[in-house]
Amino acid sequence: MTGPAPLFEIRNLSVRFPGQGEAAVKGISLRVSPGETLALVGESGSGKSVSLLAATGLVPGAAQIGGEVLFGGRDLLRLPPHQMRALRGARIGYVFQDPQSNLHPYKSVYTQIAEAILAHAPRPRPARAALRARVTALLTEVGIRNAGARLDDLPWQFSGGMRQRVMIAMALALEPSLLIADEPTTALDVTVQAQILALLKEQQARRGLAVIFVSHDLAVVSDIADRILVMQQGEVVEEGPAPEVLRRPRHPYARRLLAAAGLAHGTHSTPADAPAPDAPPLLSLDRLSRSFGRNEVLREVSLDIAPAEIYGLVGESGSGKTTLGRIVAGLDRPDRGRMRLDGADLSQPFTRAQRFAVQVVFQDPYASLNPHRRIGAILSEILVRAGEGDPISGVADLLRSVRLDPALAGRLPGQLSGGQRQRVAIARALAMRPKLIVADEPVSALDITTQAEILQLLARLRDERGLSILLITHDLGVVARHCNRVGVLQRGVLVEHGPVAPVFTAPRHDYTRALLAAVPGRRLRELRADPPDDHSDPLQTGPHQHV
Amino acid sequence: MALRLTKALSQAALTLLVLLIACFGLTRLAYQNPAAMLAPRNATQEGIAAVARALRLDEPWYQQLWYYLWRGPDVQGAKMGLFNWPPGLGYSFRKQAPVTDLILDKIPVTLSLVAGAVVLWFAWALLAGVWAAKNQGRWQDHLSGAVSFVFMATPLILSGILVSYVLFYQLTQAGWPLFPSSGYVALTSDPWQWARHLALPWITLAMVQAGTFQRITRGAVLDVAGHDYIRTARAKGLGEGRVWYNHALGAGLNPVITLGGLEIGTMLGGAIVTETIFGLDGLGRLAISSALDGDFPVVIGTTITAGAGIILMTTLSDLWIAARERRPLS
User: From the CA of B235, how many Å to the nearest CA of chain A?
Assistant: First the structure.
């Protein structure tokens, strides 16, 4: 390999947890140089986070770790703990995925950053006033407005994006030479994600950092990486300069990941057709408003959903899209406005038949299924309620309708994968023979290849059963690929709506334009618009999705 | 905030009033013939009846309650009911003194006892609890677990006598009279003697609680040990000591605060066994002696004091937790 000498190098690292037959990491090697961004890509369980945690001594003691980790000429795996501690935070900075769970809940942001500085400060310790000035300067540098006045705030008093900026300030506080960013934008809104990526790039350029960027999403990675390394089941399956990996991935798994990223974020893919304009709507909302206290969450929202349509509702956190979904599902009531289903007014609360007609699929299939009940029991209970005939064959039919093996009825939710659990959640909704399903971020907790499969299942249910779906998402790529029409919510107001293609190609509202501009994967789309002329373009071959 | 505080205070006052009335009712039910308990041992029927009349024990209960709340016995011409000013808790039947004075007299003893015990008990529970959590599954954990089970399983009466035997009797025998066996010296008159006299009761009382709270602390800390922000603390390069004793303990402290507040509140009502073993004249002994004597105004007074202690401590622990989370008191 050419280029400057590596700053950080992993050689043949393996990690095995006691009690698990297979090693979590099976001899991976990687290197990163100053000023370079290496992206480590793979799905959950691929071993990408574990490798880096193990390399820096952050994996709990019982794991067996082998190989070499070279940093500044020393092997980190053979350093005594106090020397390893002295490197962590000072020379190696970390930014983790979810700034909510990664910041201490009862310590002010000042304390959390200052103690990182103090942990590595030579004695005598810096004076408090100087320390406060230093932390203020750091927070200002990462874009926290009025930082001096916010030093003593707790993490929850900041928004998600601001919390991630605090995390970054903490990681950069001691001028490390290596920054490990583990899914730093996955928990954030798309516009905030774009800001955080820009901030990371800016800081890297200013400080000449070596960055290891861990992500499951090749589109996000394409915007930031110099080199890409793809991991699957604890092994590196693909490695190379970013443009090369993005243009001509050699390994089938890398091709699948790339195709999934292209599907998820390609806002110019051909969307489904808009419904016939003269069809009477299935659901019609007329000037719905909802406030919580003084906070107006929805203001005069009017929209129609046609039969056999997927209606995409997009917006950032706090835009009111979940509240609207809850009202449509009858889980919350509007303060004002009218809702009609199939031409009849929806009473508040819903009648029994109306409750059956509108069903919900939630975001997190880990949390929305009772972990102590078997799949068959979960589904048959509902079939009995719905007055369906034989619950046993009914359960099998339901599982088949979401492309699951009926034998899974005997399993507990914990024994299923995330994608399988979300299919069960969809089957649970289908059991009521609904006309409309409200799906609130149904794929955002899933791996990127699984996301595509679940979305295709929803599209199939629309086409085969004439089901309508209100798809609530922050991901515009999902909308572009699968929705007939789209509505854009900003702070409780529906600022733009209509068929997907015109809204996405010629957005009229500034907010829609901002959302579209923030979609990750610009570089991926540029490469795609200019494909190499051999036949190995992954975006042409595409994945064989079996749904 | 002021509104919420007012609400909390008025709720507390209402709770205490209900407690007082319930307590009044209970004393009337519990003692069939209180005048006989109060009269001299060789009193005649007429004598007992005279006592009952003098103390208005022969009147219907609602008149007695009215009298208790609005007037109090005006033995020396002063009204000392709860609804007079200054509010009082009546006049002791037997001790010939206002109940408020009797209680105020004992409070310093009980407060001194509780304050010292709390310091010892939390110092031990937090240090040993986090130490056990930090070394989960290793010998340190087992050792600390064994000690805590011994503490929890030993009845107060036994541990009090053992502490007294070893630290007073054996030490004194060996020519080291470090601790007196009993008695109380006010903090204001001689702080050194105050601490010397209270050391053994502090140890006794702390031991009982330390075992339980050591286990609670260990569990609370282990609960948060797997959280992401603990990993962040390590990633910042903090030492293991700070990770466990500052970050993990700080995050897991809420249940310890809540339960600690309850336990301290209960103790403020008097630590009867400890006070008796070490000859401390605190609220606990006052409560016991008045209950045995049929001296209801004092029984009610000590009960109210205990109730106020619990309300005060639970409110304080709620306030503390709210302040930690920087949210208004719910």
Answer: 6
